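Lecture 7 notes: from sequence to structure.

We start with a single chain of 117 residues. Read the sequence below before looking at the structure.
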Amino acid sequence: LAFDPDYATNRRFYVNYTATNGCTAPAAAGCSKIVRYQTRANDPEQADPATRTEILEFRQPYSNHNGGPLAFGPDGMLYIATGDGTSYNYPDPRTVDVQSLDSLSGKILRIDPLTGL
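Now the structure, written as tokens:
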């Protein structure tokens, strides 16, 4: 969970979670999703489900090692620790795609929180 630097005025916050269904990317165990919400205008202690906006989704080949924190940097960008996506008993962790630039696993991503790019 990370609160937008302008949360006091825009009421936006971001959530990083692992889903086991509803994933658009093919995955063995699910996917990680970065989602933006706003709190209700009349109740700042409740998220407004109607404001849900999916910012980013990426596959998770196993059900553990799937993520980490979200944080805003001083540049206003959203930083996401993705986890390596391996299993605790994965036979050869060197074969997981964390070293590939085509994979979002095992990275710290820096994205624009409004566009997901």
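The chain has a mean pLDDT of 86. Keep this in mind for problem set 3.
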